[in-house]
């Protein structure tokens, strides 16, 4: 199988958990240290080998698109003032990487958002990165670990991949939990590990949780998932759920979960965002 070169990043959400900040500033552009959160997510994808970034965006959040565009006037002014290094830092994407945007006009769920990227992705395998989840760029190698590992596994096996992380028993009710062939309690390790997955249970109580492996927010899919998304009927509230299409894909092709190496941060919740900001700022400069 081909290694994926496309990635879909859904950015159209209103960020209600981050109000009132997100009323004026897209939550994806809130800083973690000296860069916005979305910068790290895109950098992760590019480092893993992605060449085509598809932002599924909303008309009110065009600032995200602008961040990845070239501002020729600003570049020229900086260079005229001798600030070449600063100008270079603004154009951080490699020349062979493109960022395009498609619109999700109505908030009809994550599955619907992913489906909007089909016009760009076509019949190619692709990754999905949820921008609320920011992986640690300081303790892991994005060129080898996590998403990069998942992409390699897909190329070798042809099976779709989902990143998971062991969570405490007290937290299993907060997440989608992987159901494996055996009920296992996996310990956090320093390497990525793969397991065959039979399905997922959404926010189970501890007594019925099939494992302690929680979905993190990184996926690698075969293009067939678009067909299942197109056929998925809206749930209560009119949303098209990604999990429904994942279940269908598992039944037809099988799927693996990959345990995450290193920590992740929820940049879409105010409390955990502040914790993430402090950590990222401390990595940028010891004087923080």
Automatic annotation (TrEMBL):
CDD domains: UGPase_prokaryotic. Its EC number is 2.7.7.9. The lineage of its organism: Bacteria, Pseudomonadati, Pseudomonadota, Gammaproteobacteria, Moraxellales. Residues 7-278 form the Nucleotidyl transferase domain. It comes from the Bacteria. It comes from Moraxella canis. Signal peptide: none annotated. It catalyses: alpha-D-glucose 1-phosphate + UTP + H(+) = UDP-alpha-D-glucose + diphosphate. It is an enzyme of class 2 (transferase). May play a role in stationary phase survival. GO terms for biological process: UDP-alpha-D-glucose metabolic process. The keyword Nucleotidyltransferase applies. This is UTP--glucose-1-phosphate uridylyltransferase. Belongs to the UDPGP type 2 family. One of its GO terms (molecular function) is UTP:glucose-1-phosphate uridylyltransferase activity. Keywords: Nucleotidyltransferase, Transferase. Pfam families: NTP_transferase (PF00483). The keyword Transferase applies.
């Amino acid at each position: 199988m081909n290694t994926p070169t496309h990635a879909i990043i859904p950015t159209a959400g209103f960020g209600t958990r981050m109000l009132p900040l997100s009323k004026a500033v897209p939550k994806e552009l809130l800083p973690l240290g000296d860069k916005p959160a979305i910068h790290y997510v895109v950098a992760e994808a590019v480092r893993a080998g992605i060449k085509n970034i598809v932002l599924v965006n909303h008309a009110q959040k065009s600032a995200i698109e602008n961040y990845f565009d070239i501002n020729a006037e600003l570049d020229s002014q900086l260079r005229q003032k001798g600030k070449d290094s600063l100008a270079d830092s603004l154009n951080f994407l490699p020349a062979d990487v493109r960022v395009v945007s498609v619109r999700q006009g109505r908030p009809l769920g994550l599955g619907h958002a992913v489906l909007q990227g089909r016009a760009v992705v076509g019949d190619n395998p692709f990754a999905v990165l949820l921008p609320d989840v920011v992986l640690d760029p300081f303790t892991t190698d994005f060129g080898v670990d996590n998403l990069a590992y998942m992409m390699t596994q897909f190329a070798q096996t042809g099976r779709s991949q989902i990143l998971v992380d062991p969570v405490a028993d007290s937290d299993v009710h907060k997440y989608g939990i992987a159901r494996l062939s055996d009920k296992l309690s996996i310990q956090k390790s320093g390497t990525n590990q793969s397991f065959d997955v039979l399905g997922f249970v959404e926010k189970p109580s501890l007594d019925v949780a099939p494992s302690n492996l929680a979905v993190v927010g990184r996926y690698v899919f075969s293009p067939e998932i678009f067909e299942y998304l197109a056929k998925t009927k809206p749930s209560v509230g009119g949303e098209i759920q990604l999990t429904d299409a994942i279940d269908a894909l598992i039944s037809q092709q099988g799927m693996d979960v990959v345990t995450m190496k290193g920590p992740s941060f929820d940049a879409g919740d105010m409390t955990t965002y502040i914790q993430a900001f402090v950590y990222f700022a401390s990595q940028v400069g010891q004087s923080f």
